[in-house]
Amino acid sequence: MTQRHDIRLGADIGGTFTDIALDVRGKLFSTKVLTNYAAPEQAILDGIEVVVRDAGIAPKDIDIVIHGTTLATNALIERRGAKTALVTTEGFRDVIEMRTENRFEQYDLSLVLPKPLIPREDRFPVKGRIDAQGRELQPLDEAALEALANAIAERGFGAVAIGFIHSYMNPRHEERAREILSRKLSIPISISSEVSPQMREFERFNTVCANAYVRPQMADYLSRLQVRLKEMGAECPVFMIHSGGGLISVETASEFPVRLVESGPAGGAIFAADIARRFSLDRVVSYDMGGTTAKICLIEDYQPHTARTFEVARTYRFCKGSGMPISIPVIEMIEIGAGGGSIAWVDAMGRIQAGPESAASEPGPACYQRGGERPAITDADLVLGKLDPDNFAGGKIRLSVDNASAAIARDVGDRLKLATEAAAFGIVEVVDENMANAARVHAVENGKNISENIMIAFGGAAPLHAARLCEKLGVDQCLIPQGAGVGSAIGFLKAPFGYEALASKIMRLSKFDAGAVNTMLDDLKATAEGFVRAGTDGAIVREITAFMRYAGQGWEIPVALPDRAFTAADTAMIEAAFKERYAQFFGRAVEGPEIEFVTWSVKAQDVRPEGERFTLETDGVVASVPVTRAVFDPASGKALETAIVPRDTLSPGARVTGPAVIVERETSTVVTSPFDAVIQVEGTILLVRKGH
User: Whole-model pTM?
Assistant: First the structure.
């Protein structure tokens, strides 16, 4: 029987705010509450109380809760996970410390490598060897594992990670090691062939270590959340959004919490992709700026770009290779430490900097009056007039202009001999320029021109900065959807039940074994669909992707292939598909070298209703604006009398001439002087450059 989810709730725990979005048969209710670091589930419960009261329902009426969180990410960054033991193949104890030969800062003689998640004394080598074809070269030393179980028990470890060489080809040794250890240990044990069955031991070992490291904490949190939801009357199922953008059960999330590391940002990308589909926009850049970070994601043909690996806890904030690699499917985006709570400071060279340190929710920016004394981006936005101090977060948080001004003057203005307003403008300009640079780099790395995209901006802080970012990037149109302030939480409600299963199997195209490939794909299909069926019995669609390369190359490209059984006659079709895809990435294919498969992927998800389609309205009728206040305008470099317009007073087709600020409960949209705003038929704000 197909489950009915007429009343759906999305909950997104961020670094500063926890966002709640409740969909009651198509009508949306939302709120933002400050994240509670001591008891993260409390913020969810507080937010649920607000939205169910506004909707006139009881918690027991909720059919499904969909949750995303940064808790796993924060535990990895702040090193607050369990004491973890790594059991690995003899001779490979130091893989996670030796890393690869790549130097992420080639000319830095004082290069600081990230510390491995598990120190050397907690890494235990065991004899036993599987080769690259999956054959056993040396039997597993089971007696050593029996003794090791006693040692792990005596030393008080909270979790175990098992990572053996070539286990992605043959997991028998890892499975046997888990069986032996679990006889004497009552702590969770993660094995790399289940967490990340892909080649490249550095990435795979790191991923299983990260999974084990956060597993006890996440399992405890998710269990606590379910208990407390039931205590308040919400006995509905809880599902988690994973980094690849699909929904998985709480049980799966507890076993594989590393899949949750990018769950919140993934919800935002899904939200933007849904808006793109509704307005038939095939080239979109999403801009998600919250309280702690800002994220950019490219969306083509209504699908966010995806990847198989990403990094957390970079020691050099923007340097690829300087962090901890996590080898799981993920929606690909670039992230910088620039959110509303990011702290502004002046470096040794007298330059204004912002982030990555954040004031978060405790103590918060200086203007929150919660004990924070250092200036944050929100303080600068307030001083510039972008925010109404009496109507921030729907009036729940009263902002102090005096506190914000004093903090900016002390830490930035006085040091640079700038007036407070000029210092505030310097802070937001640095933030906007950093975001623009990150967006340009991300687009270039993907072979795209950022100015050819339409922007979709969401998150509590993005609408405040989107117009200025568009100015810098040469983007002429930007959409601010309804509910933009809680966009990721709304994205959770639109996410499919989905899972991507992967397996590495290196094979030359000239020796294509259709039978072996079909058997492997059947296993992957069963795995992926098994996770999807935990949430739905509706129709399922599948995508088959082969990650391929020319023999001798160090990385692969994704090649979409048909979802059917393969035959030996398919080699010509696969070769043509690979060369076409290779030419898209690099300009032309190469003739001569052998082509080989490295990894296969099966992505399964249920079919989602697409929703109503709309056409962008770019003209509109100029609306009257009776209320104005002085707001700093970056294009003119001075404060201008600016229209202040409540969003709920604007009808479809209304045009607001910039400069203006369109205010709502969870955010405000700043329309700079080069732009106008046109209200679309379903309430979305379109920022359109004057003359376009």
Answer: 0.83
